[in-house]
Design goal:
Strand order of the largest sheet: 1-7-6-5-4-2-3
Strand content: 5-15%
Low-confidence stretches: none
Order of helices and strands: HHHEHEHEHEHEEEHHHEEHEEH
C-alpha cells in the first residue's frame, strides 16, 4: 500500500467502489470547508481570491495530462465536455462503442438529432474494448472521429491510445473519456485530441469537478457551439456585443464554476501529482491481483482482462449459481462496498485500499459456500 498517500484518507478498509465514487481526502474536505468559510466572511477581496483556485486546478490538471493551461479548461463534469465535443463536430461519422457508459452515447445521439455528427456503433468482443483492429475494420472515408473510454467501466479494459491514434491517422479526432483512468493509469494522453474527465471517481475530488484538454487539431476543427460569456475574448468587457470565442480551451467555458469545488479539485490533483500516477497505479495493481486471486479461489469467474497491461483498477466477476444481489449482501456483511449489477459485481480498489480488503472479500465469499 502507498502509505504516504493512504494517510490522507479516512475511507473504510472494505470500500471497493472507486469506479463509482471516490471518497475525497481530508485535504479536499479541508479545502472545501476553508473556501466556504471564506465565502461566508466575504469582503472586497473574497471572490477574486477564491477564483484563483480554478487557475491552480487547471494548471495541475494540464501538467498531469502532459499539456499546458492554454489547452486545458475546467468543467463541472465529464458529460459537459463530451457534449462540447459531440456538438462541435460539424459533420461526418464518429465511431463509438455500443458497450460504453450511456454518458458517451447521448452526446452523439443529440449531435445526430441536430444534423451534425452521425454515430456508428462499434461492438467490442465480450471482456474486451475498442481495439485498433476493431477501429480499422470500421474506418471509411466519412469517419471524422473516434470516441472511446480510456478504461471501460464494465471490465477495466485499458484502451491502447497510441495504437488507436496510429490506426486512425493524423487527420481524424481521437476523443477520450478518461474518467475511469485519469490519475490512476499511466496513459499517453497526448495521443488524444480531446480528453475529458470528472473528478468524483478516481481523482477523489468530489462531485461537480472535472476538466478537458484540447489539442491544436481539436481547437481548429471543433466548432465552439456551447461557448458562454466566460469563454470569449475580452470577457470583462460588457458592451452588449457578441465577442468571438477565446482562441484556446477557454472557449469551452460556459459560465463561472464554483470556486469551492475548484478548491477541492486543486487539493485532489495536488495529492495525485505529489505521489505520482505511476506509484498510485502500481499500488492499485497489487490490490487488483490480490482480489483476483481471492475471487478465483472461491470459484468466481473473472470478466475483466487477465493481462495486467490491458486492464486498469476494475475487477468484474460473477459467482456461478449465486445471484449478484445475494453475493453483494454477503460482501456488505463483511463491510465491503462493491458495485452491484444485475449480472455481475465490480470491485475497484485504490492506492489507499489495505490488504485487509481481500481478506474481507474472502470471508464474504466463503460464507456463501461452493
Amino acid at each position: 500500500m502507498l502509505t504516504s498517500y493512504a494517510s490522507h484518507f479516512d475511507t473504510p478498509a472494505g470500500y471497493l467502489d472507486f469506479a463509482r465514487f471516490g471518497p475525497p481526502s481530508r485535504d479536499a474536505v479541508t479545502a472545501t470547508a476553508q473556501a466556504l468559510d471564506a465565502s461566508a466572511r466575504a469582503d472586497h477581496t473574497t471572490v477574486d481570491t477564491l477564483m484563483r483556485a480554478e487557475e491552480t486546478a487547471r494548471d495541475t490538471a494540464a501538467r498531469l495530462a502532459g499539456t499546458d493551461a492554454r489547452h486545458t479548461v475546467l468543467l463541472p463534469n465529464a458529460s459537459t465536455g463530451l457534449f462540447h465535443a459531440a456538438l462541435g463536430v460539424r459533420e461526418g461519422v464518429v465511431l463509438a462503442p455500443r458497450t460504453d457508459f450511456p454518458a458517451n452515447h447521448y452526446p452523439w445521439r443529440r449531435s445526430a438529432d441536430l444534423g451534425r455528427a452521425t454515430p456508428r456503433w462499434l461492438d467490442p468482443a465480450p471482456g474486451s474494448g475498442v481495439t485498433p483492429d476493431l477501429v480499422r475494420a470500421a474506418l471509411t472515408d466519412d469517419v471524422v472521429a473516434v470516441s472511446v473510454s480510456a478504461v471501460d467501466f464494465r471490465t477495466g479494459f485499458r484502451a491502447d491510445l497510441a495504437a488507436l491514434r496510429e490506426a486512425i491517422g493524423p487527420d481524424r479526432l481521437l476523443i477520450v473519456d478518461a474518467i475511469q483512468a485519469f490519475g490512476v493509469a499511466s496513459l499517453p494522453w497526448d495521443a488524444a485530441d480531446v480528453v475529458v474527465a470528472g473528478g468524483q471517481k478516481w481523482l477523489r475530488a468530489g462531485w461537480s469537478t472535472g476538466f478537458a484538454t484540447l489539442s491544436d487539431r481539436a481547437l481548429e476543427s471543433l466548432e465552439p457551439v456551447l461557448t458562454g460569456w466566460t469563454g470569449v475574448e475580452d470577457v470583462g468587457l460588457f458592451d452588449g456585443a457578441e465577442h468571438p470565442p477565446a482562441p484556446d480551451a477557454r472557449r469551452w467555458s460556459i459560465t463561472n464554476l464554483s470556486p469551492v469545488t475548484a478548491a477541492a479539485f486543486a487539493a485532489a490533483l495536488d495529492l495525485v501529482e505529489r505521489h505520482t500516477v505511476p506509484a498510485i497505479e502500481a499500488s492499485i495493481a497489487v490490490r487488483i491481483a490480490e482480489l483476483t486471486e481471492t475471487v478465483e479461489a472461491y470459484g468466481g469467474r473473472v470478466l475483466s482482462p487477465t493481462d495486467p497491461a490491458r486492464r486498469a483498477g476494475i475487477l468484474s466477476f460473477t459467482l456461478p449459481d449465486h445471484d449478484p444481489a445475494l453475493v453483494a449482501k454477503a460482501l456488505h456483511a463483511e463491510g465491503v462496498t462493491p458495485t452491484v449489477r444485475t449480472d455481475s459485481l465490480r470491485l475497484s480498489p485504490h492506492a489507499s485500499t489495505p490488504p485487509e480488503a481481500a481478506e474481507r472479500v474472502a470471508a464474504a465469499l466463503s460464507s456463501l459456500g461452493n
